[in-house]
Amino acid sequence: MRGAVPYGVACGLALGVLLSPPAQAGELGRITDRVAAVVNDDVITVSEVYDLGADFIEDAVSEAGEGRRHEAEHAVLQRLIERRLVEQQIQTLKLDVTEQELDRAIDDVARRNGMDRDQVRAAVEQQGMDWDTFRAEQREQLREMKFQRSVLQPRITITEDELRDAFLRSGGSLGGESASVQGLLLSIPRGAEPAAVAAVRIRAHEAELRLVAGEPFAAVAEAYDEGTTRASAGEMGDFERGQLVPELDGPVFSAEVGKPFIVELPTAILVMRVKEKKRVDTGLEGARAKLTDTIFAGRMEQEQVRWAEQARRAAIVRVLLPGGDGRAPRTEP
């Protein structure tokens, strides 16, 4: 029930979340310690529901009235049921957390908040949370992390196609190919008669034949070029697919390397040659690690939900906490 209960209530590692003081069952007056659910042979009590989600429940009541209490209680209870199923799987796999691992995790929380362990304890107790309860919550989080690494992570495979799709959706461009291009331009005068246009075509073919015969492009450009590329000896530069105008992009990237070709435009005829084509850095490699982490986090959430659904179907879960809609206690499956 991650969408219903803020996940920080259950397993946040930020100190500000961990130190938020839960309301205690005794403070709420109306709460008696009774059975909320039975998961296989394990009992979940109402006090456990409030130990975990008292703030969430009371916030729901404050916003929408007392009628929302049962709905909020059930949202927290679903999280506890999932936790209990995870705990049972952890016990089966013998994935427990040692005291040394727990101490290291708390020291890490302290370090990230600019404190030492004693200062963390003082802050925890100042906000009304028992230190043993705090450590128990941290232990639970570490056990869930071990469960994710051991049970869920092996179920996740990220393919190259997924990475490419995610990169494109994020606004990246794969590009993929660049071409080093030479060219010379012969102008077609505005309003030229057909005979004048034919004369320009003849000169373009002459230039093409000289290139085919092996003359340097710079020499041919010097003799024929009427465009700005003459100053650079016909060197147009390097272009990625899509950077040239469509009338040139298609011919350039379909041309054979080293073979001159002619492109006729309304106002000019170009004699061109591709010196080299190469694959280019698309930017995917630079984004690979971040994209992998993002995809993995989403897939981990999906696998957690899928595993919980499968585990719940395989378990015997009896929910005894009254529902907000007046439903009777129920047994699953």
Could you describe the 3D structure shown?
The protein is α+β, with helices and mostly antiparallel strands and 333 residues long. The protein has a 4-stranded antiparallel sheet. A 4-stranded antiparallel sheet has the order 4-3-6-5, with helices on both faces. The two termini are 18 Å apart. Helix 4 packs across helix 7. The longest helix is centred in the C-terminal third of the chain and has 31 residues, at 284-314. It is 53% helix and 14% strand. A hairpin with a 3-residue loop joins strand 5 (261-264) and strand 6 (268-278). It folds into 2 domains: 7-158 and 288-332, Orthogonal Bundle (Triger factor/SurA peptide-binding fold); 178-278, Chitinase A, domain 3 (Roll), CATH 3.10.50.40.
Kindly report the average pLDDT value: 82
Could you say what the CATH architecture of the largest domain is? Answer: Orthogonal Bundle
Shape: elongated
- What oligomeric state do the depicted chains represent? single chain
| CATH class membership of the largest domain | Mainly Alpha
Beta-strand percentage range: 5-15%
For the biggest sheet, the summary is: 4 strands, antiparallel
Q: Please provide the ordered H/E string of secondary-structure elements.
A: HHEEHHHHHHEHHEHEEHEE
Task: State Rg.
Answer: 35 Å
Q: And the CATH topology of the largest domain?
A: Triger factor/SurA peptide-binding fold
Low-pLDDT residue spans: 1-31, 324-331
N/C terminus separation: 18 Å
Widest β-sheet, arrangement of strands: 2-1-7-8
CATH superfamily placement of the largest domain = Porin chaperone SurA, peptide-binding domain
The number of E-state strands comes to 8
